[in-house]
Design goal:
The chain folds into two domains: 1-107 and 260-360, 3-Layer(aba) Sandwich (Isopropylmalate Dehydrogenase); 119-258, Isopropylmalate Dehydrogenase, CATH 3.40.718.10. It is built from twelve helices and 14 strands. The chain has helices spanning 14-32, 45-51, 57-65, 88-98, 122-125, 166-182, 197-210, 223-232, 244-256, 296-308, 313-328, 346-357, and strands at 3-10, 36-40, 68-73, 103-109, 129-135, 147-150, 156-159, 186-191, 217-222, 239-242, 265-269, 275-279, 331-332, 342-343. It has a ten-stranded mixed sheet with strand order 2-1-3-12-11-4-5-10-8-9, with helices on both faces. α7 links the parallel β8 (186-191) and β9 (217-222). 46% of the residues are buried. The structure holds nicotinamide-adenine-dinucleotide. Nicotinamide-adenine-dinucleotide binds next to α4.
Amino acid sequence: MPKKIAILPGDGIGPEIVAEAVKVLERLRQDCGLDVELEYAPVGGVAYDTHGTTLPDETLALARAADAILLGAAGGPKWDQLDTALRPEKALLRLRSELVLFSNLRPTILYPQLADASSLKAEVVTDLDIMIVRELTGGIYFGQPRGVRTLENGERQAYNTLVYSESEIKRIAHSAFRIAGKRSGKLCSVDKANVLESSVLWREVVTELGNEYPDVTLSHMYVDNAAMQLVRAPKQFDVIVTGNMFGDILSDAAAMLTGSIGMLPSASLDTQGKGLYEPVHGSAPDITGQGLANPLATILSTAMLLRYSLDEPEMAKRIERAISQTLDAGLRTADIFRDVGRQVSTSEMGDAVAQALATN
Ligand code: NAD
């Protein structure tokens, strides 16, 4: 039985970059025996235009039925005037929560060929390879009660609730320990246990769980220190696990260490390893349709899809090697071009990676 991949190109540069990832999948199917079937469905603004909703029922049904989902991006100026609840970006939040994709993996890898694209000195970031595991469906972004009220003195007051239950902490910690076990065996849990009760519980639960993973060395760090260490000496980290808001902020800071948002993949997994894979960036309306988009974040997301949902780690490595070879050959899309090498278009970059697969 072939594994089913739901392909949701979405808006803006989404269709351009997803097309390049599909080239890579097709090459693996033809040359390396990858047994997958691809099925397309609309999501985001394009779905709103054709179906009147940004997440049509058939798209959700396909996403549920598939073994993994590859997504481009959603949103753009055309739909900015819609009510918040109807906005294309909401389709992604709904997809993540309907499929209970609670574990968000954001690798920050700096290819040595791109060290000069980083905002930090080359020696601080060369060979950087960090995995941030962010809890995605709980914490302060979802906690109740939340709202804005008017106090007796007439002043407005806004409030949110940072809440984590033991089971939520356990499942994200399990996910992180397992990933750390497959990497260098080092896990750093980031919290604010010196101030927040939710973090005290977080630290207790993660520490208890550590006994089940004797091969993983667990450490803890306060989030303010983690932010500082990420820009001071980022290579001290391997896997970081943290809550929703801390992960949101730390992963964006870590992202910038690699130079371009066009290089950053992500995965959001459920307890069974099924996942939604997408580049970290958005639909980039400013460069849509010009062949300027970097497809590597989406192609790297496809490698993650093969590793984490389809259990094809060798194929994932082949893609990563092919990307490295392509960068070695000097090919650069506009966002990572810095005087050396040759600037290429979105599709030329995809062609080159697919071509390199044949030789590695
Ligand atoms: P963005 O990530 O789309 O773009 C930010 C900047 O990075 C732009 O200058 C863009 O040209 C550049 N960029 C992004 N991806 C690139 C790539 N692959 N190659 C080269 N350059 C790239 O963020 P934004 O401009 O704030 O948002 C645009 C739209 O995307 C908005 O509607 C936003 O809501 C939506 N968005 C969607 C997602 C998602 O689908 N997961 C995530 C973030 C933003």
